[in-house]
Amino acid sequence: MTGQPMSDTYAQGGILPDQEIAGLFAAGAIAVPIERDGDQIQPASLDLRLGPKAYRVRASFLPGQGQSVVDKLDRFSLHEFSLADGAVLETGCVYVVPLLESFRLPADIRATANPKSSTGRLDIFTRVLADGAQEFDKLPAGYDGPLYLEISPRTFPILVRQGSRLSQIRFRGGEPLLNEAELAALHGEQVLTTAAEANISGGGIALSIDLVGNQDGLVGYRGKRHTGVVDVDRRGAYALTDFWEPVLRSKAGELVLDPDEFYILVSKEAVHVPPAFAAEMTPFDPLVGEFRVHYAGFFDPGFGHSAAGGSGSRAVLEVRSHDVPFILEDGQIVGRLVYERMQALPEKLYGSDLKSNYQAQGLKLSKHFV
């Protein structure tokens, strides 16, 4: 399969759905040393699993053209340790973990990675590394080699082990991204957000921040410092109040983002992703302010859509200010959703088919907290 184009349908452009990702496994384009998890394949992405060892490194790095990650680890690694029985990754440190999955992609299929939703909501900064890479989180068409994950917990120390899933990857053929006119036409047919008047430009549809909140005035959460450890594989195991402090509505309808603090906020609009499409939040737009929104930007087919048991799901936003305090006001645009075509309809949709954690969500922390 390596180096050979796939069927002519791929030339039309699209994100590979779950059944086609399974086909990559069957054809040997994705190799694993142990059996894959039963729920590892999502409607439009594949969860990536940590391998049995990890490296603490001096600093983040890119291998660069013609160089391997292993060569750079020989230079920059401080020490190696096992993940077989679990290990704690400390805040403020950078780690590199070889992943269980390795790729031999077809010549016309490329891939892009992103943190999983729960990873972003824990403020864990992750990026996929590949041999010869000059960019994070991107694999060129035909990539043949191992994968690694850079991990840097920002707010909470975390416990991980072999098989923990912090990142996900999408596979693309052709040019599936909708342009501005196509996006406007799709919104006219499907109503992609509940905004009274959709702001569509640059190929993306705007999302704004909700600083009105619920009936109790809750608009978000701010991560506490010096907390206990979060086991990334345990659901509903931690008291919210031990790790988060509430952010309440202000009289002025604004919020001052403190530098180096981490916030969970929510969009004012609900989002709909039709089954034949997938969406992604642009992680940072310099036109809207000096802050980063949404580490984990993938929205699967069916997110918030009636076809998957949804009635609109708001986008939870992971927010950090850069260097200086920044004032957010209610209704301010904080990012844009771009939409892409699926190569085919997935067999399962995000939501009712998968008992997904964040379908029909409002303001919601990660699955680890109660």
UniProtKB/TrEMBL annotation:
Gene3D superfamilies: 2.70.40.10. It comes from the Bacteria. Signal peptide: none annotated. GO terms for biological process: 2'-deoxyribonucleotide metabolic process. InterPro entries: DCD_C (IPR053811), DCD_N (IPR010550), dUTPase-like_sf (IPR036157). Residues 180-369 form the 2'-deoxycytidine 5'-triphosphate deaminase C-terminal domain. One of its GO terms (molecular function) is dCTP deaminase activity. Residues 13-174 form the 2'-deoxycytidine 5'-triphosphate deaminase N-terminal domain. This is Deoxycytidine deaminase. It comes from Aurantimonas manganoxydans (strain ATCC BAA-1229 / DSM 21871 / SI85-9A1).
